[in-house]
From TrEMBL:
Subcellular localization: Membrane
Protein name: Ca2+:H+ antiporter
GO molecular function: potassium:proton antiporter activity; sodium:proton antiporter activity
Keyword annotations of the record: Membrane, Transmembrane, Transmembrane helix
A Pfam family recorded for this sequence: Na_Ca_ex
Chief location of this protein within or outside the cell: membrane
Segments traversing the membrane: 35-54, 66-90, 102-123, 135-156, 168-186, 229-247, 267-285, 297-321, 327-349, 356-374
Occurrences of domain Sodium/calcium exchanger membrane region (ranges): 38-187, 232-372
Organism the protein comes from: Micromonospora echinospora (Micromonospora purpurea)
């Protein structure tokens, strides 16, 4: 991952998160006129871009694959806070919000971000090369977490509807947290090399006759000092808090627009997932353009994994004081899309090489999911 060429961070990346937080404090709990809402949206977009910048600075300091975890975990923690906040304020109508948001995150990361990453690299190098050992392990963990947490509630008989009983929810939460913790250990300690980009000569061989100009360029960027990395980490947290806070401010407008357009409620979960995944999407795209597709895949699958492995335990704990049922089970259409995503993902990952075809297949699946979410 290439770090910005200047350290400390450029002034806009420093000022925008601070300005966004100040704005958040001013507008919180108030009814906003249209002009102010436009300003909030602009600051929201700026905070997202600032988050990507500071995540890259920190990731360049700590190295891979630790760097890929930073943005995924940070954004997911904030996502959990946003879901719980909306569930507390929304009442029984938000019983499926956690399910809708988590499933949206899985489909967008495993198809949208993965497909975009493969596409951006394949356009330049024809064949995309990555490590099937690490990517396959990540995909297997994501699919297992998704099945245990989102598919099984539809078929269990202990409680009515698509909900777990208390002991079942506790088991799903503990299992999710254990699997995620195990993956983090394997990725960063036990088999760290499985999640690093392939050697330069392997990447160069994927595009005969072309120079490996982008391969390894990030190695020449200076490593930022610890003080700069710590400052960027603090600003990353500030930017993410601003993103979620401003999104919460805009959530009534989002829900009103969805309702006025006659769209189903799951679309709210899709909007939340698209918003919180925007920093990771931009970071994955940047890495893919630099021939670091392995890092892009780490970001995509790591985000999906963290979205389930951290969200489900947090929601399970929050359900102790939340009113109403917690519906986690997917519907028939969603289960079909998840099964197709699993089959396509396995076929993409196993060879350790992909082309434009696999990229468009994943992007088509993402488009199908988004279309069916709005038109069930």
């Amino acid at each position: 991952m290439r770090a910005p060429t200047r350290f400390p961070a450029l002034a806009p990346a420093t000022l925008v998160p601070l300005l966004a937080v100040v704005t958040l404090a001013v507008v919180w709990g108030r009814v906003l006129p249209p002009v102010v809402e436009v300003v909030v949206v602009v600051l929201l977009a700026g905070a997202v871009l600032a988050a990507v910048h500071h995540a890259e600075v920190v990731a360049h300091r700590v190295g891979e694959p630790f760097g890929s975890l930073i943005l995924a975990v940070a954004v997911t923690v904030i996502e959990v806070g946003l879901i719980i906040t909306l569930m507390v304020s929304g009442g029984p109508d938000t019983a499926t919000l956690a399910r809708d948001t988590v499933f949206a995150a899985v489909m967008i990361t495993c198809n949208g971000i993965v497909g975009l990453s493969l596409l951006l690299t394949a356009v330049r190098r024809r064949v995309v090369v990555f490590n099937p050992e690490g990517t396959g392990a990540a995909l297997a963990t994501v699919l297992t977490l998704a099945t245990l947490s989102l598919v099984l509630p539809t078929f269990t008989t202990g409680s009515p509807g698509s909900a777990f009983t208390g002991p079942q929810l506790a088991f799903a939460a503990v299992s999710s947290l254990f699997l995620y913790a195990t993956f983090v250990f394997v990725q960063n300690v036990r088999h760290r090399d499985y999640f690093l980009p392939p050697p330069r000569e392997v990447l160069a061989s994927s595009s005969p006759g072309r120079r490996g100009d982008a391969v390894g360029d990030e190695e020449h960027a200076p490593v930022p000092p610890m003080t700069t990395a710590l400052g960027s980490f603090a600003l990353l947290i500030v930017a993410l808090v601003a993103v979620v806070g401003l999104a919460k401010v805009e959530s009534p407008t989002i829900e009103a627009v969805v309702a006025d357009a006659g769209l189903p409620r799951p679309v709210v979960g899709v909007v939340i997932a698209l918003l919180v995944l925007l920093p990771e999407t931009l970071a994955a795209a940047r890495n893919a353009r630099r021939d670091r597709t392995q890092i892009s895949l780490n970001l995509a699958l790591g985000s999906a994994m963290a979205s389930i492995g951290l969200t489900i335990p947090a929601i399970a704990v929050a359900s102790l004081w939340l009113d109403g049922p917690l519906v986690l089970g997917l519907g028939a259409t969603q289960i079909v899309l998840l099964g197709l995503t699993a089959a396509v993902g396995i076929l993409t990952v196993m060879p350790g090489r992909a082309t434009l075809l696999q990229a468009w297949v994943h992007l088509s699946l993402c488009a199908s999911y988004l279309f069916l979410a709005a038109n069930p």
